[in-house]
Each structure stands twice: as C-alpha cells, then as structure tokens.
C-alpha cells in the first residue's frame, strides 16, 4: 500500500499496487479513453451503457438485502431509537474520518459528544461534524430528495466551511511515493455540474436496477466527479447511507459501512480506479455489496449485544437496588455512555436530590463510574462504552456487591451480670 496526495487540498489516499485480474479494456468497450493526467471530463454519464447486474452481482445483492432486512428488524429491538442513533453513527463517523487519516478514539468521541470542551482535538471535532452531517442529511430526507444541494450541505458541515462545488482546476489524485498522477477528476465547472445533475437524476429516477446496485454505481460516480476540493469521500459515504434510507432499505442511519471500507481501504481505492481504467463495474459493485452485507451483520450483532446488556442492567439494578430502579433511568444510561446529573432532571426522572442518590447508588453497584469534570461530575457507563468501542459483543455480567454481614450482637455483659445478680 502506498499513499497518494490530492493537489491543492493536502489530502492523502491509500492505494495498492495493480489489479490482479484486468477486465476488458475501455477501448474494447468503446468507452472514452482515460488518461490519468488529463481532467476526466469524458466521465460517462449514469447508468452504464451495459448490463451490470451479472449473476455474481445479483447473488451478492440478495445477501446484502437479507442482511439489511435483519438490521432493520434488529433496530426495532431497542424501543428508544435515540440509543442507536447516538451510538452507531458515532462509530461510523470515527471510521469514515479515519479513512481520511483523521484519527480519533471512540472513547474520546463519545466523551466529547457529551462535553464540549476547548481542548477537543481537531480530529475529534471533524468526526463529530461527520455525525452531525449524517443527522442533518437524514432529517433533510423528509423535506427534499437527495440532490447535489444535499451533497454541498453535507460537505459544508463536515468541513465547517462555506464551500461550494469546485470551479477551479488543480484537484488531482497523486501517488505521493512515485509522484505518479492516479486520477484527475473533471475540471470544468459546467462539466462538473452536468455530471452532478445526471447523478442526481439517476438517484431519483425509477429504475429496474436494484437500489443497492444503484448505490454502488452512484458512489463511484460521485467520487469520480469529485465535486469538492476536499471531503468527497466522507460526503459520498454519508450519501450511501441516506440513499439506503431513502429507498426504504433502512429506517435509521445506523449502518456502520465505513467499518468495512476502512479495513479494506486499499481495495476500495483500487476498485474505484479500476472502474475508471477498465470499466470494471462487477468487482466494484460486488465490493460495495459485500461491504453492506458484512457491516449490516456486524451492526445487527452489536445491536443484539446492546439489547442484552440493557436487559441485564435492568434485571441487575431492579433486584440489587429496587428502591432506585426506574426503567427510564436505565434507558438514560444507554442513550449515551456518559451521563450527568442534570440529564436525570431534564428527563423528568428525578429531582436534584433524588438524582444524586440514584447516581451514587449506581456507582456503588459498579454500573456507573464517577469522573470529575471541572466543577461538574461526569458519570461513565463503562460496560456500555466498552461494548460500543470494542469489536467483541460479550460483556462480564454485573455482580451484586456483597452485602455487609450483620454484625453479631455484642453481648451486653453489664446487663447479663445485672440480671444474674
Ligand atoms: N481513483 C479514484 N477515483 C475517484 N475517487 C477516488 C479514487 N480513489 C479514491 N477516491 C475517493 O476519493 C476520496 C478522497 O477524497 P477527498 O479527500 O476529497 O475526501 P475526504 O472525505 O476528505 O477523504 P477520505 O475519503 O479519505 O476520508 C476517497 O475516500 C475515495 O472515496
Ligand atoms: Mg480529504
């Protein structure tokens, strides 16, 4: 694997050497010639002029659709959807940002999502903005269809700048080890807009193509247009998730798709390039379908384990400390893995004094852990945080703290002796 820089934007991308199997050349398919050094203004419009739904693709489609259907069902296991909406997108935000080398830890992300501090690292801020963009895009689906304007808004949120579609040349994908230019996206403003309009129409038009295949085609196209100076990868990956929701394949933005992409980043880049170089749609589409299937299964398992921990915590607290047990209290501890006293008050769960008592008891039980936060206190839910931030889905069950044994009554010598006397 080696690295490539985009001119003018200081961006790095991973590339792996060569392709193992070269499909028919572009010339053989009468596709416009591709020269990595020249802006690819001839990028063909969507849909591709040939059938891309091969047997292999359709088989992968069935698997991905089944995995997504399971995920959709699993999400219903958790009655309070905020639990999932808060957690999974944050994992997605971390990995999608890491593809761009914006590295932050999930622990820091969850914490900073809760505490806005001046010391929050730029990487964490950027990943949190990714989650914010994902939310905004999701909310926006109620009001308007996915469009180029959506992409602009998403990218503005991710980058926190008032950017627009590129109008200047100079954006290139370059191998920083050899200096070789890998890909030059279209550079003329009018061409970029024309391709984006076609992309937008393709996303919204009636089509016989499976929506998952359309997602894969559209993702390639968006990245090949590369409409922004920076943030194209992240914007495109958010659009994938929004598109699945738009198509009714998911209800919530909870597919952790970037998990697989980050782990197979060199393939992701190699296969994108292979579409441009050789019109190699099949490996690209199958890669994306596999990414959907693998991450849908992963997310389903994670949700099942969250539900398990949730039920276990309810059982544990209700039996170990029935006086403080309230369903809403436990639920709040799953809305995010960090909690504050005022959340209990704001949620109508407890008054200030009762909240103090609840939190103290939960700490004594080992469910929460108290951390000083300046003059405030932050209550961490360690088991939940561990479940969210680790790959595994198991957890150590809670153990009730040993009740102090009732002390043997001291013999009242005086009384005894008195009665004896
Ligand atoms: N050969 C290629 N053709 C088109 N797009 C590509 C190619 N190789 C990589 N890409 C896309 O370009 C993205 C990087 O572009 P850009 O830096 O604008 O986006 P980003 O969101 O800042 O970065 P990243 O995706 O690395 O997080 C990659 O994530 C990938 O989606
Ligand atoms: Mg970038």
Molecular structure report:
There is one protein chain. This protein has 16 helices and seven strands. With 421 residues, the protein is of the alpha+beta class. The protein folds into two domains: 2-300, Fic-like fold (Orthogonal Bundle), CATH 1.10.3290; 321-389, Arc Repressor Mutant, subunit A (Orthogonal Bundle), CATH 1.10.10. The strands form two sheets. It has a four-stranded antiparallel β-sheet with strand order 2-1-3-4. A three-stranded antiparallel β-sheet has the order 5-7-6. The N and C termini lie far apart (95 Å). The protein binds adenosine-5'-triphosphate and magnesium ion. Adenosine-5'-triphosphate (ATP) is lined by residues 6, 11, 13, 99-100, 173, 182-183, 223-224, 230-234, 236, 269, 272-273, 276.
Bound molecules: adenosine-5'-triphosphate, magnesium ion
Classify the helix fraction into a percent range. Answer: 40-55%
Identify the CATH homologous superfamily of the largest domain: Fido-like domain
Strand order of the largest sheet: 2-1-3-4
Structural Rg:
27 Å
Mean pLDDT: 87
Tell me how many strands there are: 7
